Each structure stands twice: as C-alpha cells, then as structure tokens.
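User: For documentation purposes, I need each entry recorded in a consistent format: the amino acid sequence on its own, followed directly by the corresponding structure tokens. There are two entries in this batch. Please keep commentary to a minimum and don't merge the entries.

Assistant: Recorded as requested. Entry 1:
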Amino acid sequence: MTSAGVVNAQPVAATWTGDGIATVALRDVAGKNALTPELVEALIETLRRLAAWDGLKVVVLVGLPEVFSSGASRDTLDRLAAGELNPGELLLPRAVLDVPVPTIAAMEGHAIGGGLALGLCADVVLIARESRYGCGFMNLGFTPGLGTTRLLENVVSRAVAHEMLYGGEPLKGGHFEGRSGFNYILPRSQVRPKALEVAQRIAEKPRVALVALKQVLATPKRVAFESSRAEEILMHRISFAQPDIAQLIGSQYGE
C-alpha cells in the first residue's frame, strides 16, 4: 500500500494518510449498517489489507451519523434459526481484535447487538449521549453472541452488563456517564472529531512501540472473546433450537 489512499467501495470505505491513520467507514445507508455477509466480508478484507501496511499506526472505525451498526441482518438471523449458518462462523470480532495497531471505535450513531459488540472490540471506544446502545439478542428470542457476554464487561460493570444482556433495553449514551469505562461520552457531533484527535496523538508514536503495546494491552480482550465463544455457541444451539424461534425473530421485524 502507498502512504496515502482511498478505497470507495460499498458497503465499506477506507482512507489512509501518510501519518499512519486509517479511517474505515461502514456506509450501508439502506441497511442501517446491518452486519450482512457482504458488509462483514468487506470489513474483514479491508482490515486485513490495512494490517499488511507497514506504515499503519492506528485505525478509526466509524459508521453513519445516525447508526453505527444495527447488528445482525435479518437474513443472517433467519439462516441461524434454520440451521444453515453455524454460530461458530461469526468471527468478525476476531478480525478487529487482531489488527496489530490500536483501534478506535467512533460510535456516534446507535449500536445494537452485534453492532455494539463490533465497537467494543476496539481499544478506545467513544459513544454519543443522544444515541442508543444495547444488546437486543434476548428481545429476538436467542442468547447473546459475538463475544458480547464478556466484551461488554470491559466498558460497564458486571452488574450493569448482566442487566443489559438479560433485559435487552437500548440505553442512551448519557445513561453511562459517570458509571462506565467508555473513553468518551460526548454530543454526537463531537464523537468523530474527538476520535480523530485521539488517533492523531497515537500516530505520533513509533509504530514498533505501538505494535508491542497493543499486543500486551489487547490480550485480555482477545482471551475474553475466545473464551466466551464456546459458551455462546452452546447457548445458541439451545436457543436457536426452539420450535418457534423463527416466529420470535419475525415478530420483532413487524411480521
């Protein structure tokens, strides 16, 4: 890769500059950045290409102004319910966790379910006071996945995480002020500028030192994701085996 460039391809776009900052944007407006197979594949491939760039120092992950990601797509849920997709194949979090340099999630828009899990994989996480963040898995009739059962505890207490996982209520970012480990909770308009400010500060550091520190600091989160996968896969097999799971999912989509 060159020292600067742009890739403008739906549903993921990436830009990178000579100072080592790469911005990866999810931009499926029609689908509200749902985690469709196309978006997931494009994101994984984009991160893989960026990781191979020896000038990379930090990655900033952004979504749409109103929606960071609405979580798993309806098609993905239907395939899981029909047994056509193995929950063990859902490895997007690993792709983010394996980026060799620090990652920043600028979640200025709503982030629900798998969309929230995606952002929680970043090393630095910013959310907006006005937007909503939640784990709606149980609302759809099945147990949480994508490592959420452990990743959520990196930004909120275990008690709060359990309430969010059981209840499924999306909460405004302002709800977490003074009671969470999110790096910044800001007005929506300030989330992305602040993320780029943090990225610039990180990019001033030597890459070799950033890579070494990332390897150490990200290890607990990687371990948490990997250890939760087996438990979540087992829970998915149980919950997706319910005879009425398709109807439960459909009821949440207005059917």
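Entry 2:
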Amino acid sequence: MDAADVMKRAVAERAVEKYVEDGMNIGLGTGSTASYAVHAVGKLVTEKGYRLKCVATSLATEQLAEECGIEIVSLNDIDHIDVTIDGADEVDPGLQLIKGLGGALLREKIVAASSYAEIIIVDESKMVENLGIRTPIPVEVLRFGHKRTAYGLERQGCTPILRMKNRKPFVTDGGNYIYDCKFKGISSPFFLESAIDSIPGVVESGLFLNTATVVLISHADGTITEQKRA
C-alpha cells in the first residue's frame, strides 16, 4: 500500500468509527477513498453485528458492499439516510465540492440530498483554493442531442470533452454520457451551477454546493483534521 492509499484508508476508517452507529441508514459513496469506508462498514456488520441499511451510490459500490456482507436497500424503501460517507475530487475553503470523476455523480447527489449528514473524506491533495483549477467539472447529459448540449456547456466558458472508455463514450449507471468541462477556475460556482442546470439535455453537474456537513482530511504526516461547514 503506497502513501496515498494509507491516507485514504486512515481517513475512511476514522469517518466510519466516528459517525456510523448501530441501527443507522447509511449512504455509501463511490471512488477509491470511499471504497475503504465500505470495507470499514462491512467490518462493523460482520464483526460487531451492526444492523445497518445501506444505499449505494453506484453499481460498483453496491457490488463491493454485498461482497463485504452489507445489506443494500433501495432509497425508495427508506425515508431518510442518517449519514453518507463519500469522497470528493476537489474541496475549496468554503467546503464546496467537485465530484463525479468516478462517474457516479447523479446518484451521489440524490443520496447526498437525502442525508441528514454528508461526511466527505479526502486526502490533502484534494484541497484547493478555488474550484476548477485542477479538476474539470463532470456534467452528466442525455445521449439524445448530446453534442448540442456540449455546445451549450461550451458557451459557459469551458472546454467540454466527452468522457471515453475503451474507445467508446463512457456510459453512466443511469445510461447517460458525461462531459468533463475544463474551466480556468470558477469564480462564482453557484451562478455556474444554475447556468449549467438550465441547459437542455443536462441531467446533473458535478458541482456539489452546500452539500458537505463535515470534511475529514488525511495528511501526509499521519494526522487527520476535520472542518465543518458554517
């Protein structure tokens, strides 16, 4: 396990230890850091007998959770989620986020909106002064007319690039495409989110604004710090 994985595992296990209690409904995130949280939740179930109902933010997470002995339920079958533990691709000083490089942004946002608390786990490399400088904003779009949707995205000042996999367009769990939209930094994320959401064909953007309740940050020196949204 390299240094990056050590940090990811440490922050994931800290979040599960601190925020997951027996009897809760839990949201399970998607991505390399969130996968360590899934394993930690699985140990609570299999080793400590926790009774948890969990909602997965992707088919990949659902499969991993079942392998870890976790009960997966439909979001339609529960009335709330107590805690969701998920990663992020960028976090700014106001705890605004970019998510979706793992391709699960639509389900991640629905689950986040259904959660009493959204716990974000990252290593220190994900902390930025301004969103969008390093990471593109993933935007999930309908396949129908997607090139016209990309034109609308381009008019917002970005370079939209259709995400590919094995020389074919990447397809989300919802059956849609993703355009990774590269900006030269984002000065007004709330305005931009509204503008992107108004483009016909856009399903959801990877701007997660006022979503995070707490961000846990793992550092190279072995420490873990916590920031709460004001």
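Summary note for entry 2:
The longest helix spans residues 3-19.
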